[in-house]
Amino acid sequence: MTAPNPAPWPAPLNDPDALPPDTRNLIDHYKYWEVEAIKADLDMQRHQFVVLCENIAYDFNIATVIRNANAFLASRVIVCGRKSWDRRGAVGTHHYQHVSYQPDGREAVTQLQSEGYQIVAVDQAPQAQNLHTFQWPEKSVMIMGQEQIGVSPWLIEAADSCVYIPQWGSTRSLNVGVASGLAMNSWAMQHANPPRS
User: Fold this and answer.
1) I need a labelling partner for 96 at 20 to 30 A (CA). Which of 50, 73, 126, 174 fits?
2) Any idea which fold 43-191 has?
């Protein structure tokens, strides 16, 4: 499979130096590429982990999870539960990431298991393993719950593994946006090639 040719942005011009500045928050490699060309190029490099967010209430943190998924090049993000989420925190990264909605998390997990994924809940459950020593399966589904609520008990039970993030301060939990970034970074440290400079 060959890389897609970047489409001219914002319109073809005879003088490349006359292009207006591309002020989007993109690495230099993708400056002046159309959104679909960027997404197609990323699709050829995506990592083999999926992020599943339980959206029990209208959650601003889902946007941060999606932004993190773009940063660590997740295969896709599945939002389960409520369909609505606040897109402001994604800062446009949802345009480059595969984001789908599934009303029933059980169906999503069953489908992912049939595709050979191992289910890993990120939660402070009693059986959870320390994130710092956890060995991520290459084909992982990271299940992220909601702060103060956590991952649903039935999803904890369905998971192959559960991990917690060690903390040294006074609060009991991290918000989902922060926790997802730490989990994705942990997976990337074990399985990803160095990022494009």
Assistant:
1) 174
2) Alpha/beta knot (3.40.1280)
pLDDT tens-digit profile of 90-108?
778 899 999 999 988 888 9
pTM: 0.87
pLDDT tens track for 129-169 = 999 999 999 999 999 988 778 888 999 999 999 999 999 99
The radius of gyration of the chain's CA atoms, rounded to the nearest angstrom, is: 18
Residue-range domain boundaries for the chain: 43-191
Task: Return the half-sphere exposure (C-beta side, CA atoms, 13 A cut-off) of residue 69.
Answer: 35
Spatial contact of 131 and 164, defined as CB atoms under 8 Å apart: yes
All residues at 6 or more sequence positions from 191 whose CB lies less than 8 Å from its CB, including other chains: 47, 48, 136, 138
